[in-house]
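FIELD: query
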Amino acid sequence: MYQTYEGMSVYAEKFKIPTKPSLASAATNLPSYTPLEEKIINSVYGSAQLSYGDFLFLEGSARNDWSSTLPKTNWSYFYPSVSLSLLLNELVDVNGVDFAKLRVNWAKVGSDTEPYRCRMHLTSHLRRQLSRTDDSNQTLSQEKPESQTRADKLA
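FIELD: result
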């Protein structure tokens, strides 16, 4: 996947005609420009499903992404998932119950960051100031992908 973003905007204030704001009637016009940002993500995905006796089902999936927005030492992130289902109505007859299912699943999700967050860069502010910025909270070469794990049980 290849993503790009480029933007232009204008901040304006103190309009001469407040009910009809236009750039021509503003006392202050501050244009800003976001230069081209590029992001590349390559991915591999696989899944498998197994069943036993039409009552037990196991499903799994795995995905790995490589993102250009992370340092090469941590640019790969892996997130698997697994789900186990049991059709109770196939094992036990209960009067008045046509379908009963028990399902347990577990998943891990991952995410990268915005372009250029792991590097020092220059930022242009609305007041036309240019400053050097380090957006990361960690050492630049140690930025890692985000990761969360979740497990659910449904009956």
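FIELD: remark
Confidence is low (pLDDT under 50) at residues 135-139.
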